[in-house]
Each structure stands twice: as structure tokens, then as C-alpha cells.
Amino acid sequence: MKTIGEVATELGIEAHVLRHWEDAGALSVRRDGNGYRVYDDDAVEEARTVLKLRRVGLSLPEVIAAVSPTKSTAQAVVRAKIAALESEVAQRQQAITFLQHTVECRHRYLDDCPDCATFVREA
Fold this sequence. Notes:
This protein is mainly alpha-helical. Helix content is 67%, strand content 3%.
């Protein structure tokens, strides 16, 4: 059994984050006879899962849905996040392509370059 402080330190987060996850329903933690949170191995693993899902970009409501006991609900949330991330990657790749062109562009001003103007119109 671990305390909230021990788990927070192990995961590299603040204890208030664990409390917030619990309050939001993303994490369930047992209490001892004095009302203190006690984390067994399952609760620590659950917290680790929530942390990983948060770090890959899921909001707390999305995390709650992603760990839903209903597999179709969880899959729908994860698929939606994948689509959003793929869209973001495509947008960032377009930004990189545009910026690489501006670095290599032979025109003094971007407005003078037909390729730059094409990039601008695509946005």
C-alpha cells in the first residue's frame, strides 16, 4: 500500500492531480479507517494508465470514456483521438513544408513568391 504522496512522486506528478482525477471519476482509490487514500498495486496501475492517456492528449472526460467497461465506447473515443491527431500531424506537416520553402525561397518578400502565395491560399 502506498500513500498519495508516494504515488505522486513515483509518477512524477503532484498529489492534487491524483485527487482531481479521483474527484472527476477517472480514478478510484480506497480509503483506510482514517479516511486517507491508500493505493494498492491496481490503483497505482490505474493512475499510471490515466497519466499515459493524458500525456497522449486525451482530456479527462475522454480518459474516463477510454477506460469505460464498454469496449465500443472506449474504442470510439480512441478512434476519435487518433483522427484528431492525424489531422494535427497533417496540418503540422503543411506548416513545415511552408516554412522550409520560405527558408529556401529566392524571393526577398514572401508576397513576391507565387509558391508562397499558393501556400497562403491553401490555409
